[in-house]
From TrEMBL:
GO terms for cellular component: cytosol. This is Ribosomal RNA small subunit methyltransferase G. Specifically methylates the N7 position of a guanine in 16S rRNA. It comes from Jiangella rhizosphaerae. Pfam families: GidB.
Length: 225
């Protein structure tokens, strides 16, 4: 197990003096996470690059001191790596399934992650008083459905950061009408993790406008391909 979970050199640059927390989280994913079916056994050799580091590099797109909701958090991805890398953030892990929310609660306690809390709920049932600054999601749902769940959670000007695959540009293009209808102000693709993960993480960035407002002129053209 130790050889399989060897810590890559790039992890030190991402987590700094909190690297031990990231290592402890990797061990929990490879142990209880696998045992409880949150990850498949074949994912163990890829826990660092495909899961932890791929999640943590989202921090490049999050401003200091933000309040973040991680929707469909599952095993805590990307919310927990983000919280480890960025202790300045307040992170809410939103997960509806009991066995997953239990794992999250135990992991947050075991790692002593201050500023992180677990909310067992469906995203569509959450009613934040002021709206979150940032919502993250990883492998949760197609973009049009995901936007329907997450845009109502954001304050005006808040940002949805959705980790997607290589087809993210096409998914945004195909969802453009739905995004506009749901009040997104703009949307684009950003890359994160150059020099840390290969391939780099491709992230759909959707900025929330006010409900019922149309996107600014040219918003669709601001997407990157």
């Amino acid at each position: 197990m130790d050889d399989v979970l060897a810590v890559p050199d790039s992890a030190s640059a991402v987590f700094g003096d909190r690297l031990e927390l990231a290592v402890a989280y990797a061990e929990r994913l490879a142990g209880p996470g696998i045992e409880r079916g949150l990850l498949g056994p074949r994912e163990v050799p890829r826990i660092w690059d495909r899961h932890i580091l791929n999640s943590a590099v989202v921090a490049e797109l999050v401003d200091e001191g933000r309040i973040v909701a991680d929707v469909g958090s599952g095993a805590g991805l990307p919310g927990i790596p983000l919280a480890i890398a960025r202790p300045d953030l307040e992170v809410v892990l939103i997960e509806p399934l009991l066995r997953r929310s239990d794992f999250l609660t135990e992991t947050v306690a075991a790692l002593g992650l201050e500023g992180v809390r677990v909310l067992r709920s469906r995203a569509e049932d959450v009613r934040p008083r002021a709206g979150f600054d940032v919502v993250t999601a990883r492998a949760v749902a197609p973009m049009d459905r995901l936007a329907g769940w997450t845009l109502p959670l954001l304050r005006p000007g808040g940002v949805l950061l959705a980790l997607k695959g290589r087809s993210v540009s096409e998914e945004l293009r195909d969802s453009a009408a739905s995004l506009a209808r749901m009040g997104a102000a703009s949307w684009r693709v950003e890359e994160a993790g150059a020099g840390v993960v290969d391939p780099v993480a491709r992230i759909a960035v959707v900025v929330a406008g006010r409900r019922g407002t149309a996107p600014k002129q040219g918003a669709r053209q601001r997407r990157t391909n």
